[in-house]
Write a structure and sequence with these properties.
Creatine Amidinohydrolase; four-stranded antiparallel β-sheet; 10 strands; elongated
């Protein structure tokens, strides 16, 4: 709710008379809801005085039950979220639902939406004005809540675990891929959701490449080894560490 309030307090809502935001960018959806989706998701985030302030989250059948369970764990947040199942075999369901709302001015993520997607929206939604509003979410994400700061610290701590694992596991004859796997395994055991980018372990001549591709090359005596650890995900936040830095 704190993050929703930050978004809704942005001056662009009143300056541009924006009634609601349309969100499909995965990072923005994760920011608003606090967890990641596997499938494509569509969110309508209205002003507090529009549509009862209810945030509409359109989810397909594959993720609906799990998302419902997660949202219901936060009693206050669940009161302002309308979770909507996208029925199979009804490709115009979202279109019809949105058009019934009667919006005149809607903000959208102009830094993410393709020209093709924008044209599709203009064709199927009866909304006169689409207003570029990426800055609303970006500005909200610039300042972190205490919960976000704690999540970032936990992500950094997981990176430390990965780093320590590589240092303690290095042996002549191990491959770069084996070292990367050891680090990722230990971070997973400690609570990581995975890596945002491929873990980089580069030895010998490979260490000269800033963004080397981790390979099946074996570590040899005297090799210089560089790590890019790893951008670690924890509760949808990431951290990165590299050596040499």
């Amino acid at each position: 709710i704190e993050k929703l309030n930050k978004i809704r307090s942005h001056g662009a809502f009143s300056e541009k008379d924006i009634e609601a935001l349309f969100l499909i960018k995965p990072q923005n959806i994760t920011y608003v809801l606090g967890f990641k989706f596997v499938s494509d998701t569509f969110i309508i985030l209205p002003r507090e005085d529009v549509n009862g302030g209810m945030v509409m989250v359109f989810v397909n059948a594959l993720e609906f039950d799990q998302v419902k369970k997660i949202i219901e764990q936060d009693k206050e947040f669940s009161k302002i979220v309308n979770l909507i199942l996208i029925p199979g075999g009804k490709p115009k369901f979202i279109q019809k639902t949105v058009n019934k709302l009667g919006f005149a001015n809607v903000g959208f993520e102009e830094d993410f939406i393709s020209v093709k997607k924008y044209s599709e929206w203009k064709g199927k939604f009866t909304i006169p004005n689409f207003v570029g509003a990426s800055n609303i979410i970006l500005d909200a994400r610039l300042t972190k809540t205490q919960d976000e700061i704690e999540r970032m610290q936990k992500a950094a701590n997981l990176g430390d675990i990965g780093f320590k694992t590589i240092f303690e596991s290095i042996k002549e004859g191990m491959t770069e891929e084996e070292l990367a796997a050891e680090a990722e395994y230990e971070m997973r055991k400690a609570g990581s959701e995975g890596t945002s980018f491929d873990t980089i372990v580069a030895s010998g001549e490979n260490s000269a490449f800033p963004h080397a591709k981790t390979s099946d090359k074996k570590v040899e005596e005297g090799d210089v080894i560089s790590f890019f650890v790893f951008i670690i995900s924890f509760a949808s936040f990431s951290a990165s560490e590299n050596f040499p830095s």
